[in-house]
Amino acid sequence: xxxxxxxxxxxxxxxxxxxxxxxxxxxxxxxxxxxxxxxxxxxxxxxxxxxxxxxxxxxxxxxxxxxxxxxxxxxxxxxxxxxxxxxxxxxxxxxxxxxxxxxxxxxxxxxxxxxxxxxx
Length: 120
Hints:
This protein is an alpha+beta fold and 120 residues long. It has a domain at 45-117: CATH 2.40.50.320. It is 18% helix and 37% strand. The protein has a six-stranded mixed β-sheet with strand order 3-2-1-5-6-4, with no helix packed on it. It is rod-shaped and about 85 Å long. The N and C termini lie far apart (83 Å).
């Protein structure tokens, strides 16, 4: 009888520990402005750096070859451009330049908020 009570107590502890572990989030919540969504509902910004390899002014997109990947970005007239060119209209003439892009994720799209073109 003592053995059954011991096994029953061990079983109850295992079940209780398992239930408590499921109540905790799998990752700690991110602080505002770092990673995921901010309180306003917009995505936090991220940065990518690399070589400007393609610009499609008609579609409002450009591609940057980073150290590990090629990333495609969307831009518009609200995108700030600093460095060698002062507007998005001149991006096509800057292919081959090193750029640093601040962007946010909107679904599957990378939306450029600022582009810093580094002089060649």
